[in-house]
Amino acid sequence: MQSSSKTLSMALIACAIVQASAQRPPSQSGYRPSTTSSKNEVSIRISGSYRTIFANGIPDHTPGQFPNLGNPHSITPQRHSFRVTAQPKVASRTTPLSMGMSFGVALNGVPFDPGAAEFWRGSRDWQYEAKDGAINLGLDEHNAHVQPTGAYHYHAMPMGLARARYKEDSMVMVGYAADGFPIYARFGFKDANDAKSGTKRVQSSFQLKQGNRPGGPGGKYDGTYVQDWRFVKGSGDLDECNGRFGVTPEYPKGIYHYYITDSFPYIPRQFRGTPNSSFQKRGGPGRGGPGRGGPPGRGGKRPPPRGGPRPF
Hints:
This protein is mainly beta. It has one domain. It has helices at residues 2-23, 159-165, and strands at residues 42-47, 50-55, 80-85, 95-96, 104-106, 111-112, 144-146, 152-154, 173-177, 182-185, 187-189, 199-201, 206-208, 229-231, 243-246, 255-260, 270-271. The strands form six sheets. It has a six-stranded mixed beta sheet. It has a three-stranded antiparallel beta sheet with strand order 1-2-3, with no helix packed on it. The protein has a two-stranded antiparallel sheet with strand order 4-17. The longest helix has 22 residues, at 2-23. It starts with a helix and ends in a 41-residue tail after the last strand.
């Protein structure tokens, strides 16, 4: 009798857990939110000639569910401390983004980190593209996932962040690059030097290479690898750093600024200025998850909401 009662009690508890999980509301994309209880904390201030950013790395929007099938890590509070010049200058040459450095930091304190530490058969000559690659990195609807350290970070358009800051017919500033220049999401003025010219979706100037890969994984250039892309000057609105000079709402006199775009490179992969060493990753680059052999991390395309697609 006692054994039967114990079995019944365990069954009722299991049923309650399942029901609680089912009742938790999914996000707009269908992902269930992460269960982290920590709140967003970020401080951005200017001290002397530098802008300092302190943050715990918890986003100010609801993240996707972590761990998940493509990413086995849980979001945990961090102790991010970044410093950028408050008066950025264009350098004499561009600086490629290395795997050991974040490109920048969002206004909510979450790092921008486009590269994935995933390579074809370990070859550094063929790096999987995190956003469009043929591996499942467990990216959520905000194009973010979690490093083994528990650090949540963006690999492409930070949807929740941009959505919250969007204003019709205006640009959306979302963060600062490691060299101090501002970062904007998706929209720029039609005339880069005229704030009254209206906005448009700016286009990167990277194009897929034609033909087949000469070695390595072989096959057609299709965006699976970072090396599938090449910069074609004048084919889009932006330079090889995915940026341009022009006026912005925050800098009406004009400034060089970067864009996060809807196509490669998504988040820029080169610096126009000089990046600050505070963006070097502690312990080197981390892998977001196992990922190999799974479906693309995009989670599939979903139909636009009623009334047409949202700006973000």
